[in-house]
Design goal:
By secondary structure, this protein is mainly α. It is rod-shaped. This is Myb-like domain-containing protein. It comes from Rhizophagus irregularis.
């Protein structure tokens, strides 16, 4: 007979199981194997259905009381090790029936045990994670090693004095030190290593020149050509300023302006384009930001 692979036994087959077990269950040595010849289900599936649902002596609707729960925990702890970690559920169910006079289903006992075990494991994992987090939180952080060593800086200076007039000078140095990109080498040179750089703070005349130059040359999309600004500053004041110094000054000033409640007329004209006549003179920071967001569809 073909054995069904369906998860649930149909009601007609359940009636056959119930009738056979009540009439022949106690006299047959293997009633489930005999039943598997009468209905299209395996002996294992028939047994599971009987011991968990169909046995009329089962008490499946009443939850386990505290005494039964304590008994299950102690029994498993005492007998699991002696059977190499395997739990003999049939024996446990017989013990529960002997002590409490209640026939519990195998599923009911298993569900309780594994639910308790899962909660216990989660609590242990949570406690372990908290300990690890605390140890990491108070662990002294190691200082980051500098990106460029003195040795690398000296070599970049030597190669720039040799190849600085070439258009691919940074790429040639990158081939000598492949752990650094050509962009990193360029930034290091134009911001720190170029001997022509002036590292003194910007004076007031330079600051005014920067603001006015950006106002006159900034594109529609607020793009600033920093290389051209550096060249213009050098031509006007005879000082070579680094790109980082100019950027830091500009964005710091812009942030300070926007952080004020009201923007002065001078700063308002600098920050906003010429076609922003619909913003009142005493526009607040929030009004300007909202206007800019709507203009660029942010």
């Amino acid at each position: 007979m073909h054995k069904s692979k369906l998860n649930r036994i149909d009601p007609a087959s359940e009636k056959i199981i119930l009738k056979y077990m009540l009439e022949n269950g106690s006299s047959s040595s293997n009633p489930f194997a005999e039943l598997s010849k009468l209905i299209p289900y395996s002996a294992k599936k028939i047994r599971q259905r009987w011991i968990n649902n169909l046995d009329p002596h089962l008490i499946v609707h009443d939850p386990l009381n505290e005494s039964e729960k304590s008994f299950i925990i102690k029994w498993v702890e005492n007998n699991q090790l002696s059977s190499n970690g395997k739990i003999r559920w049939k024996v446990l169910i017989k013990e529960i029936k002997y002590v409490f006079g209640k026939l519990r289903s195998e599923n009911q006992v298993k569900n309780y045990w594994y639910s308790k075990k899962r909660k216990s494991t989660n609590n242990i994992n949570k406690s372990t994670k908290e300990k690890v987090f605390r140890s990491l939180k108070f662990k002294k952080r190691k200082q980051k090693e500098p990106l460029f060593s003195d040795y690398i800086d000296k070599n970049i200076t030597v190669f720039m004095n040799k190849w600085g007039h070439l258009s691919n000078c940074y790429m040639k140095i990158h081939k000598k030190f492949p752990e650094y990109t050509s962009k990193q080498i360029r930034q290091r040179w134009v911001s720190k290593l170029d001997q022509s750089l002036c590292h003194e703070p910007l004076d007031k005349a330079e600051e005014i020149f920067i603001v006015q130059w950006i106002k006159d040359n900034q594109t529609t999309y607020d793009k600033i050509y920093w290389k051209k600004l550096i060249a213009a500053l050098k031509e006007q004041f005879g000082k070579l300023r680094s790109e980082n110094k100019l950027k830091n000054y500009w964005y710091s000033r812009k942030g300070q302006v926007l952080s004020k409640n009201c923007v002065s007329s001078e700063d308002r004209n600098m920050l906003l384009s010429q076609d922003d006549d619909d913003i009142p003179p005493n526009a607040s920071r929030m009004e300007i930001l909202c206007h800019e967001a709507l203009k660029y569809n942010f």
